[in-house]
What we know:
Blueprint: H1 4-20, H2 23-27, E1 30-37, E2 42-45, H3 48-55, H4 58-64, E3 69-79, E4 84-94, E5 100-113, E6 116-125
Parallel strand pairs: 1-6
Antiparallel strand pairs: 1-2, 3-4, 4-5, 5-6
Amino acid sequence: MLDRHAVHEFFVSYGRALADGDLDGIAACYAYPAYVAGDAQSIAVAAPEDVIGAFAGAAERYRRSGVTRAVAETRGVEALTDSLISADVRWSYTDDRGTEARTESFRYLLRAGGGTVRICAVAATADAASR
């Protein structure tokens, strides 16, 4: 079982891939199949190509809006089994001076193995600041 620090470091790497537009790096963070659930829609993610398609252009949209970093705040980590982990993460999207442009929060279901984790499922959650 990975500790909280290792889970946080996973999200730091994931955030770097998001901000850099590293589509292969983003896709490598997922286990397949995976599932993404939000208020408006749910998406089954069968293969890396699905993740690449979903995130294509996202980094460019971030840059156009002045966002250069996706900063993870790992708010909670819970071991569900020997290999399944629940993690609550608040994302802060900032410019190059660290000014926050917007935030989002998600609950992730992660599978641990081989010294790292992969995302199995993602659900959008209400940002604690807006509750």
